[in-house]
Structure formats: C-alpha cells, structure tokens
Amino acid sequence: MKANNLTGAQWRTSTRSSGTGQCVEVANVDGGMAVRDSKDRSGPTLLFGAASWRIFLAHVIAEGSAR
Fold first, then answer.
1. Over the chain (67 residues), what is each successive 10-residue block's mean pLDDT?
2. Other residues' Cβ atoms within 10 Å of the Cβ of residue 7
3. CA separation (Å) from 2 to 12, 15, 21, 33?
4. CA 44, 2, 51, 16 torsion: positive or negative?
C-alpha cells in the first residue's frame, strides 16, 4: 500500500470511541486498512494488509477481554 492511495479514503471513527477525543479513525484501502489519530488527521497513518489487520484485531479483542 502506498500513502498516495489515501487521498480518496472514506474514514470512519472507531465504534469504540468514547467521545473524549481519544479515538482512531479507520478506512478500507487496497484490500487492507488504514488507521489514524482523529486529533491529528494529517499526521502519520498506519497501514495494515488484510492478514495483518485480522491479527491486530484479534490481539486488541483478546486484550480487551483480559481486562
């Protein structure tokens, strides 16, 4: 995935957003996902391929279940 592919990305706020401004936005891009900080939309973006995104989510879900 290349950064220039993010120009037309359709960003959406995480469903886990607390409304306190401490959340992320995600967008489907090139068969994967992009993630950015909602407070710094022009800042760095994480890009995940489809397999990496599934692994990332599995870890996030497991961490949330452990609390």
1. 70 76 86 90 91 92 81
2. 6
3. 20, 26, 27, 12
4. positive
